[in-house]
Write a structure and sequence with these properties.
DNA polymerase, domain 1; alpha+beta; 14 helices; 44% helix; single chain; hpI Integrase, Chain A; 3 domains; 4-stranded antiparallel β-sheet
Length: 425
């Protein structure tokens, strides 16, 4: 119903007729803004500060000014009154969000990712977020949706499109469920941060149903295969590194960041306090992946002997390098004392495996091999194995290696039956 002609445009309790319907206005208080020094145009600081006036190109000054917000599109007066009452309540509770026309892509690229640059995220995690935004979120139809209009159904539809149409980063192979779950984790965190920053009232990525990831047993070697591999690499320059990966189950970056001051050869221990990551060709050294990643673990006599040999080899290389030697106190380094790059180490391991004619295995697969040998073949307590691996808790170890331990469960069933079930029962 249109408002009477004599009432049009009149504000009553913050509500007035507008465009054949009704609108309401609320006061948001004093908020940061920018004013043009030439044309006096005002721009609210909802996003990054502007460098110049979009209207005339003039210089800008920072100000704080009283701000109002109007919302229209209500067909009836009572609908506008109720909406204004709800908005005033949210404003009083601190949950009201200021309307903005920013798209999801603009928010992700111009607001969210830049805000993470000062966060304590691991470089590999940040690189993963950037890749997901660049390849699977920003350049898509979903990226063009207004952030404040984004709905759960739109996100679910986008995920279905990714699975059906494949990837949008130039790869022709279809997207796996595990990759989609990682993309969802990125979007969910970004929208969670949008809620915290009052861009949106609720996270539309909550409760989006995701495809189940098929549990597949990870490729591993058994103890015979690991022994055979170590036999073939005796003369390899990186043989001490391969041995330590095999006997400790340490992560790739943990041993590449290991320093001699964290090695006690007399006590037969190494203390893992640092981890190396590589992202975009840049090397970063920080703390291990989890708090439990900081650990001191025992090493066997063969590993102690290999590290003593490694120390002697480094002294020889140091003399040969002379002034080119970079003294970083690294246990494993180049012949000039520089970092061993993680990706190159992984490639070197794969090439060595090919020469050994053993089943294909990644360097991370050697960590899984250590765990399965310890749990299944040697039947070591899961608490001991979990601690050596640096897992945050035992449940993670049990979840990752449940397939391997099911064989141990079968052996336990047979063993129990052999001592309690009567013969010919």
């Amino acid at each position: 119903m249109r408002a009477p002609a004599d009432d049009r445009g009149k504000m009553r309790g913050g509500v007035r007729p507008r465009g054949g319907g009704y609108s309401f206005t609320i006061n948001l208080g004093v908020m940061p803004a920018q004013r043009c020094n030439d044309c006096n145009a005002r721009f609210w600081r909802d996003r990054k500060a502007l460098r110049s006036c979009p209207k005339c190109g003039g210089s800008l000054r920072d100000t704080h000014e009283r701000r109002q917000q109007t919302q229209d599109g209500f067909a009836r007066l009572k609908e506008a009154v109720k909406a204004r009452t709800d908005a005033m309540h949210d404003l009083g509770q601190g949950t009201y969000v200021v309307q903005a026309n920013v798209t999801l892509a603009e928010y992700l690229q111009e607001e969210w990712l830049p805000s993470l640059e000062i966060s304590p995220l691991r470089p590999t995690t940040l690189a993963s977020y950037e890749s997901h935004v660049r390849n699977h979120l920003a350049p898509t139809k979903l990226g063009g949706v207004r952030l404040q209009q984004l709905r759960r159904e739109q996100i679910a539809k986008h995920y279905a499109w990714l699975l059906a149409e494949g990837r949008c980063d130039g790869e022709s192979k279809p997207m796996s469920a595990s990759t989609l779950r990682r993309i969802h984790a990125t979007l969910h965190r970004a929208l969670r941060d949008a809620v915290r920053s009052r861009w949106i009232p609720l996270n539309p990525a909550n409760d989006v149903e995701l495809p189940r990831v098929d549990s597949k047993e990870r490729p591993t070697w058994d103890s015979t295969q690991v022994r055979s591999f170590l036999e073939t690499v005796r003369a390899d320059r990186l043989a001490p590194l391969w041995l330590l990966y095999s006997t400790t189950g340490a992560r790739r970056g943990e041993l590449l960041a290991l320093r001699w001051d964290a090695v006690d050869l007399d006590a037969g221990t190494i203390s893992i306090r640092r981890a190396m990551t590589e992202a975009g060709g840049a090397i970063t050294v920080g703390e291990p992946k989890t708090r439990s990643g900081k650990r001191t673990i025992a090493i066997d006599p063969a590993s102690v002997a290999a590290l003593r040999s490694q120390h002697r080899t480094q002294l020889t290389e140091r003399l040969a390098a002379g002034a080119r030697w970079q003294d970083k106190d690294l246990v494993f380094s180049t012949d000039e004392g520089q970092w061993l790059l993680p990706n190159r180490v992984s490639s070197a391991f794969i090439a060595t495996v090919k020469r050994s004619e053993l089943p294909a295995l990644s360097l991370h697969g050697l960590r899984h091999s250590f765990a399965t040998i310890a749990l299944v073949e040697r039947k070591l307590p899961v608490t001991v194995v979990s601690r050596r691996l640096g897992h945050a808790n035992v449940s993670i170890t049990l979840d990752i290696y449940s397939h391997a331990m099911s064989r141990q469960d079968e052996e336990a069933a047979l063993d129990m039956a052999s001592v309690i079930v009567p013969q010919d029962f």
